Amino acid sequence: MDMRELDRRAVQASVDIVAEVRPGDLERPTPCAGWTLADLLAHMTAQHLGFAAAAEGRGADLDAWREQPAPDPVWAYAAAAERLTAAFAAEGVLDRGFVLPHVGVDAPFPAAHAIGFHFIDYLVHGWDVARTLGIAYDPDPDLAEAAWPIALAVPDGEYRERPGAAFAPSVPTAPEASRFDQILARLGRTPAVPRSREQWAR
Q1: What pLDDT shows up at residue 20?
Q2: Where is the chain membrane-spanning (predicted)?
Q3: Are 191 and 200 in contact (CB under 8 A)?
């Protein structure tokens, strides 16, 4: 399947989850160490806009990736997701190289590889938001299967312990874990039953 369609579905799932965010949720801690939900949404929004710029040939513009506070983070996230999806769907985009300055590589990435990075990032960030809110998040099995080889290709090791690393060190998982739970563990998340809103209020 076209990586763009896989990414579109993962992004739409994340939009549906972010739509559940209420103003009182924004200061909750997330699975991303040191980040509140407001921080995470700002990051997710900026990454959409940065990847959209990369698809349009403007990835080297650091301002395109800059995180900015939004009066309505939920609306801003949905708008950025819509722009990103349109940019990825543009004619000829798969023939372009994407400049991704945050990856630390100067050479452009092949479009399909760059979109694959975005795809797995948002498959996992959808879980981050759902985990923070205490709601269920169960991606379609074909999305998890498509993401698994990408997760395996992400290097593990000490670099993941550095400040600002995209993923925490991988964690062990049970042999019977679902493919998506294996992805979460591989990328440093600990699958667990989320706390509900009621539990957060206690």
Answers
A1: 97
A2: none
A3: no
